[in-house]
Amino acid sequence: MSLQKQTISGLFWTFSQRFSVQLINFGVSIIMARVLLPADYGLIGMLSVFMAIGSSLMDSGLSSSLIRTPNADQKDYSTVFFINIIGSIFIYVILFFSAPFIASFYDQEILTPIIRIYTISFIISAFVGVQSTRLTKEMDFKTQMKIQIPSVIGGGILGVILAYLDYGVWSLVWMNLFQSFLSAVQHWIYSGWRPNFLFDKERFKYHFSFGYKLTLSGLLDTIYNNIYNLIIGKFFPVAYLGYYTRAKSLQQLPVQNISTALNKVTYPMFSSIQHENEKLKMAYKKLMQQVLFWIAPTMILLGVIAEPLIRFLLTEKWVPAVPYFQTLCAAGILYPLNSYNLNILKVKGRSELFLKLEIIKKAFITVGIIVAIPFGIYGLLYLQVIISFVAYFINSWYSGKMIGYPMTEQVKNVAPMIILAALVGVLSWLIDKYVLLQMLHMIDFMRVGITGCLYFILYLGISQLIKMPAIIDFRRLILKR
Fold this sequence. Notes:
Elements: H1 3-35, H2 38-59, H3 62-68, H4 74-106, H5 111-118, H6 120-126, H7 129-137, H8 141-164, H9 169-190, H10 201-235, H11 238-252, H12 255-272, H13 277-304, H14 306-314, H15 322-332, H16 335-347, H17 351-372, H18 376-403, H19 407-437, H20 444-465, H21 469-477
Helix pairs in contact: 1-8, 1-12, 2-4, 2-10, 2-11, 3-7, 3-10, 4-5, 4-6, 4-10, 6-9, 8-9, 10-11, 10-17, 11-15, 12-13, 12-16, 13-15, 13-19, 13-21, 14-20, 15-18, 16-18, 17-18, 19-20
């Protein structure tokens, strides 16, 4: 199969996997959010930074090294498998004994047993890290979808049942743990790979020398991606963190899922042409334009319909999350592009530069947080918008130099889509506010549906009229015309 056909097939199955899984998760979360309180989600949000740090340390960047290694064999895979197991147990023990201190930090005693149960998922996930990596390396996203869907359905059913039985925050804990268990079992059934009882020191050194820099970079990124949860949980009421985490999860439904799905396909695809800069530039350019063509209007539309959407889905008690959600939507527009630029650094083997850039960005974020805290919760939210743009310029500057695609050229290619999406967003907001709401007094469901349809009719129609390159490429690659 040609690289283009393999990439398109990979995109189809990974998007099918991500969005089918997330739509199920979304449906489950809507049901549970109507039953549970914002404070329940706030408690889980307090743990996000520790869960994310544990996941980052457990992987140690070894999965990325396996994917970019052209002829990885059983020695490579088995060595990484046992490192993952040992690392997960070590991390679990640390968190088990740290649980009382974390609970004391937040002044929430219930966090101690929650942490000790919730983090068992690290050990479960370690048993399938290599199997999942192999499926990604082979671009077998169809099998991954077959594994993920039953897992989220099973976990979701358990979570909803426990929520209605008044288990509160524990319904979220057991839902995620059971989902991890179901996923692990199916990976062993469907992946077709089993480890041998061997450990090769040389293979470990090879993968670790590449991976540890990515681990440090990922650790920094993980801490700072979740530091807002830490600060909000410490200095603001628990309900505020609940509003923030719910708004973040809604924003991530399109943003992170598109980004994660594309990264799973583009990283192995970029790796296969890592020494051909012209091909790499062309592939990067087309993918960058394509993702922003869809993500920019989606984020802006969600910001426009935020209030009726959240009230309709989550009920009136979640309306305070609306401004959180709108600000996060603005911050999410460039999120996938940041991931793309970092993938270029990884496939080029520049993990030391990857780490250097993460340190620079995190230093900027640290200063920004210190300045933003006196302005309260909204100061922290607006900071995320600023950081997303700063991060894009830093990442694109270096990755662009590597493949002959300078930042100025990148901006010229993406700016028309952002401008068009914003202009259509302003028009749609005016129609929703002064026609659908004030004059026609429409209910939330109708406002969301009519505004959404109107937005994309205008956006796609104008894009076709001015012959925007992204829509032409979409028709040629996907629609075959």
